[in-house]
Amino acid sequence: MAVFDEMQAEGGDVRHPYRRFHAWYEQQVPQTLAAKAGEAEGFFRRTGITFNVYGQDEAAERLIPFDLVPRIISGREWAHLAEGIEQRVRGLNAFLDDIYHDQEIVKAGIVPKRLIEGNEAFIPQMVGFRPPGGVYTHIIGVDIVRTAENQFFVLEDNARTPSGVSYMIENRETMMQMFPELFAQNRVRPVETYPRHLRRSLQAVAPPACKGTPRVAVLTPGIHNSAYYEHAFLADQMGVELVEGSDLKLIDDRIAMRTTEGYLPIDVLYRRVDDAYLDPLSFRPDSVLGVPGIMDVYRNGGITIANAPGTGIADDKAIYSYMPAIVEFYTGKPALLENVPTWRCAEADSLAYVLEHLHELVVKEVHGSGGYGMLVGPASSKSECEAFAAKLRERPGNYIAQPTLALSTVPILTESGLAPRHVDLRPFVLVSDQVKIIPGGLTRVALKEGSLVVNSSQGGGTKDTWVLED
């Protein structure tokens, strides 16, 4: 399978974005770089940058492996990518506003009604309500892949509670500490400003009840959540409070948090709690993670919730398959970033094709994430494909399928030197009164030779992502 090597051009020449790095690398002592890799692991361990693996008794808390070789993108490449990402997130927010109001896109026959009203991520309590500033999804992670033809495609949208930004920032800080000379030689655009931009973006969508400077807080499910490190990190970096549901209560039609000065009202709550657990009076009555009554306060203009409840429908992989048409419907222009070709297994013809070519395809659950609940056909045995085919026939609407992509490769550091590995990219986007795209993002890398699975829960790692000033 042909792949696009992001460092080496055909004929063995080093591509322009990597030339200065490659010249520097050629002067390095392999033992020194190996020692630096050990230093980086020690730094992450001391800092506590871990994630939890659910369903496993041993080694439940793990480090995400970090590779020292940066992924480097030219300024011109990034400009094209950023333009397409901005168009996409504007389309996403317009779509969310529409489906909770007039559903013009359904009336136009572009998105089937069953995918909206029959979707478990569709929140009826949001119907007819428009969040402050008209923003539904304030923080978005757009997963991007680069194919053999050197084209960028969107693999999926993360519009609910995208994670990984703390790794993006810590990866950069680690690289700057260990290799300051590289940053002196390369004009790399900053990512460490993200927390400041995040706070500014959240304050810009304060609710009508806000008086004065908006007070922001981060709501976490607690220390046992897989992304707790990130929740604490972002609250600390923004200079705001990290709270749990037990720290909050309804007082005078506002949601207030417990402080040493008594209870103080919150204007903007960056929640990292799923919709179902957000308000036991509106959703799951057994939830102890959320705040009783917060949905009423929200609908009455007393608080902004970021991201808004109900945005998870935009993460649905069946909805994803309509995204180019959705973007064009709301922006009036063809999508600058295309989707990966996708078969909707709910459609009889597509299901027949997928079942016949299962050994060639990647099949995913429409609500799945983290690399779970999927089949990578070329890497699966005949019996695994047969078992998955039975699940497909039983619940075809629960799956979509995509071709096995020839993901681009970037070099990683191995004992024998640089070696190519497959990667994807998750840029992070902030939406308020403006759209702010952080130049870079989280590059996830499949550390196993030949592997296409980049998820940390499935053995992948991360690396620093450089966007150069051309």
From TrEMBL:
User: Pfam families, alphabetically?
Assistant: CP_ATPgrasp_2
Which Gene3D superfamilies does the UniProt record give?
3.30.1490.270, 3.40.50.11290
Q: Please give the superkingdom of this protein's source.
A: Bacteria
Q: InterPro entries under this entry? A: ATP-dep_Glu-Cys_Ligase-2, CP_ATPgrasp_2, UCP005522
Q: Where is the Circularly permuted ATP-grasp type domain?
A: 70-446
The cross-references to SUPFAM superfamilies, in alphabetical order and at most eight, read: Glutathione synthetase ATP-binding domain-like
Which PANTHER family has this protein been placed in? Answer: BLR5612 PROTEIN (PTHR34595), SLL1039 PROTEIN (PTHR34595:SF7)
Can you name this protein? Putative circularly permuted ATP-grasp superfamily protein
Q: Which organism is it from?
A: Aureimonas pseudogalii
